[in-house]
Inverse folding.
């Protein structure tokens, strides 16, 4: 009887050790389950890449509900594009400390009909679809998230980080490209996106109109 | 007048022998009653250690950091941060150097002051006692060019970032220098880390432990030298016919042979209002002039004063000579103010 207990103990011990070992050698990325049924995404880019002071290139992407979203449909409205990735800790930070929500609020205060969308181009990462939906829901951020599966739109705009922000004025001209604010680790003194839309509202030039974005790299295919 | 000078004992919120912000190791799971009396417990531990060596590791400071057994969730699982006084003591009314040592787990990296395409640089927010004043910015040693899919300027392994501090004319018997370190660590994914650190001033003497001293010494050796101190180098802003600055031109005599050139590379700093052409980092051209090897860098500049956020316009960056593995490899810091010509 005692021998059986001992043998059983050894088996349990080795099983436990094997489980722990698996945990050690497993890739230490943050796994976020995703649906393989993400909506088909096609970017129909207009001619030319985005350039400050010039008309922003148009594109069509599906949002997380599978609904097509076309930049051309926003004509006459101020548009903010914010690249995001639920896996990126900087994106989580700007959500958790309400930077994104406050930016959205500031933009809407200046232009109540402004269009503010998130774009997830991190298609090669295990995220995109359900993670984006959960991310927005968890942080109660009310904006559509577009899924840029092949990264075509990020290349079109030269989006390099998450978050990387772009402001397009009501005439369709790209007027700001860069960081959401001046502090990668929080506690920002200047919110560049809000400053840009406030400048638009005041009829003044956007200054600065280009800053160095911070955050995680946009992982294109 | 210096009333009392005291020496420094490095300390963090843990202790002097393990000055880490967070240990990398994971403590072996408790075996409970089974292990306390029965040889089965010993077998269990032995089995676990054999199958999974990571769980029994203890990481002394300066050792190669190991990631915890389970998936890391924050940057403090990846990077062990500690704070040290380089000189080992603080003298009244003198400048001393604070070292932020970051020990980075294998395969991960942190960033230089210009992170490249993405990321952000480590920061050290100082909470200094009255009378202590920071001198200049946090100094970064020469970065490496990392990354395949994106451009990354940063560090792997163990690095030290240095901050000079001016001490007051009199020192209290015991003080603590506190700071908050923040960083972003990446490989295929990224994590943000933050540590509250401190170095206490006590009457006892304690030099930096050897592993930390080695990290700090390596960082000091790899700190960029101002190019203005290099006699054989020159830097010039080149303007076009309208007077607009278009190019930063740098050239100098090097020990790098024209016949078998080793890299001489310019990496730009983050300079609001001044951006650098595509294709950074830019490599030097070589030629032989009077039997001397001359490296020349021509760096295209794009200047937008409105984006300078009210700060003076400047073109700045590092020139890396060689890959940092030879004793003759140097690193220069270029920092050139850009005056804006007003139309006459």
């Amino acid at each position: 009887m005692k021998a059986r207990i001992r043998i059983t103990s050894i088996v349990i011990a080795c099983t436990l050790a094997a489980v722990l070992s698996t945990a050690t050698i497993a890739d230490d990325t943050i796994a976020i389950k995703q649906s393989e049924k993400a909506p088909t995404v096609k970017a129909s880019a207009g001619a030319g890449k985005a350039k400050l002071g010039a008309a922003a290139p148009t594109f069509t992407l599906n949002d997380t509900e599978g609904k097509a979203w076309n930049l051309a449909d926003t004509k006459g409205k101020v548009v903010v594009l914010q690249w995001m990735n639920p896996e990126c800790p900087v994106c989580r930070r700007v959500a958790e400390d309400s930077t994104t929500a406050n930016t959205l609020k500031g933009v809407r205060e200046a232009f109540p009909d402004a269009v503010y969308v998130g774009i997830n181009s991190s298609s090669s990462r295990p995220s995109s679809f359900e993670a984006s939906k959960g991310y927005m829901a968890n942080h109660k951020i009310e904006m559509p998230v577009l899924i840029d599966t092949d990264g075509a739109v990020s290349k079109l705009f030269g989006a390099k980080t998450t978050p990387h922000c772009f402001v397009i004025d009501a005439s369709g001209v790209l007027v700001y490209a860069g960081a959401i604010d001046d502090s990668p680790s929080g506690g920002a003194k200047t919110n560049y996106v809000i400053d840009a839309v406030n400048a638009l509202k005041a009829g003044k030039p956007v200054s600065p109109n280009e800053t160095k974005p911070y955050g995680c790299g946009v992982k294109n295919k | 007048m210096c009333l009392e000078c005291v020496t420094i004992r490095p300390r963090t919120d843990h202790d002097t022998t393990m000055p880490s912000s967070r240990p990398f190791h994971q403590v072996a799971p408790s075996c409970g009653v089974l292990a306390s009396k029965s040889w089965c417990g010993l077998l269990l531990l032995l089995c676990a250690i054999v199958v999974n060596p990571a769980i029994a590791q203890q990481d002394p400071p300066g050792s190669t950091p190991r990631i915890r057994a389970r998936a890391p969730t924050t940057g403090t699982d990846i990077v062990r941060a500690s704070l040290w006084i380089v000189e080992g003591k603080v003298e009244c009314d003198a400048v001393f150097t604070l070292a932020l040592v970051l020990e980075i787990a294998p395969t991960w990296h942190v960033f230089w002051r210009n992170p490249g395409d993405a990321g952000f640089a480590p920061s050290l927010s100082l909470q200094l006692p009255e009378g202590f004043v920071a001198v200049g910015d946090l100094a970064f040693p020469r970065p490496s060019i990392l990354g395949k899919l994106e451009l990354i300027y940063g560090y792997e392994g163990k690095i030290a970032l240095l901050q000079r501090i001016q001490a007051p004319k009199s020192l209290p018997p015991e003080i603590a220098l506190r700071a908050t370190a923040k960083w972003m660590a990446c490989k295929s994914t990224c994590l943000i880390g933050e540590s509250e650190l401190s170095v206490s001033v006590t009457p006892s003497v304690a030099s930096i432990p050897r592993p930390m001293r080695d990290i700090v010494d390596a960082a000091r050796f790899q700190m960029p030298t101002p190019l203005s101190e290099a006699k054989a180098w020159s830097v010039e802003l080149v303007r076009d016919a309208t007077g607009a600055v278009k190019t930063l031109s740098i050239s100098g005599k090097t020990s790098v042979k024209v016949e078998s050139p080793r890299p001489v590379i310019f990496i730009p700093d983050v300079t609001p209002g001044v951006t650098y052409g595509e294709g950074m980092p830019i490599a030097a051209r070589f030629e032989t002039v009077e039997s001397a090897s001359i490296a020349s860098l021509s760096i295209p500049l794009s200047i937008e004063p409105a984006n300078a956020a009210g700060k003076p316009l400047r073109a700045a960056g590092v020139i890396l000579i060689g890959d940092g593995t030879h004793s003759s490899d140097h690193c220069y810091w270029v920092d050139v103010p850009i005056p804006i010509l007003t139309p006459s």
Q: What stands out?
A: The domain at 8-24+59-221 of chain B is CATH 2.60.40.1250 (Immunoglobulin-like). Confidence is low (pLDDT under 50) at residues 1-38, 40-58 of chain B. Chain B touches chain A through 47 residues (CB under 8 Å). The helical segments of chain B are 32-37, 39-51, 210-221.
